[in-house]
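Task: sequence design from structure.
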């Protein structure tokens, strides 16, 4: 299993990784940013671990051997949500300049750009963004964003009484200047 955590500032945390009673016989290893953080061999249900999150993107990988029983759970931080220390996510899109986006990138690359499209600066991305995605935009500009426009296009298709589904959406940012 794999996830990522976007952390605002370098953070050190000490907490317990634990396995449920039904998964105590699993061999579990947890990696943080490619380095083995800890392992919990079969028979060990809990272990104190020191997490050293760096500023920016942190990758967390959990490997396990569930021989015998495949029903159980693993808690990375007993009693605390990992979201306390950052924003968990699976996919992360990186900015590329408009030329690189047009010429060197395809729909499998996890990138976006900001370019002029029909007279407006638009955020462009070639891959489909999931329905439950969280969009965070950060800009180092000294001009603050004065307004955000969100447009959602909904469709009921053939059934006028059905719940509408999201067809597309568009987000626009306007600076104060």
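Answer:
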């Amino acid at each position: 299993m794999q996830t990522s955590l976007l952390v605002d500032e370098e953070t050190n945390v000490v907490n317990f990784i634990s396995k449920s009673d039904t998964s105590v016989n699993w061999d579990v290893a947890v990696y943080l940013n490619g380095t083995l953080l800890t392992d919990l061999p079969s028979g060990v249900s809990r272990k104190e671990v020191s997490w050293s999150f760096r500023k920016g993107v942190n990758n967390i990988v959990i490997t396990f051997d569930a021989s015998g029983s495949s029903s159980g759970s693993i808690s990375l931080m007993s009693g605390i949500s990992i979201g306390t220390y950052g924003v968990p996510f699976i996919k992360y899109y990186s900015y590329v300049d408009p030329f690189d986006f047009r010429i060197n990138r395809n729909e499998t690359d996890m990138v976006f750009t900001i370019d002029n499209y029909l007279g407006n600066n638009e955020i462009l991305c070639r891959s489909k963004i999931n329905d439950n995605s969280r969009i965070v935009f950060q800009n180092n500009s000294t001009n603050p964003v004065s307004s955000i426009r969100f447009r959602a296009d909904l469709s009921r298709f053939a059934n006028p009484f059905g719940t509408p589904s999201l067809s597309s959406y568009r987000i626009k940012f306007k600076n104060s200047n």
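The chain has two domains: 2-89, 94-175.
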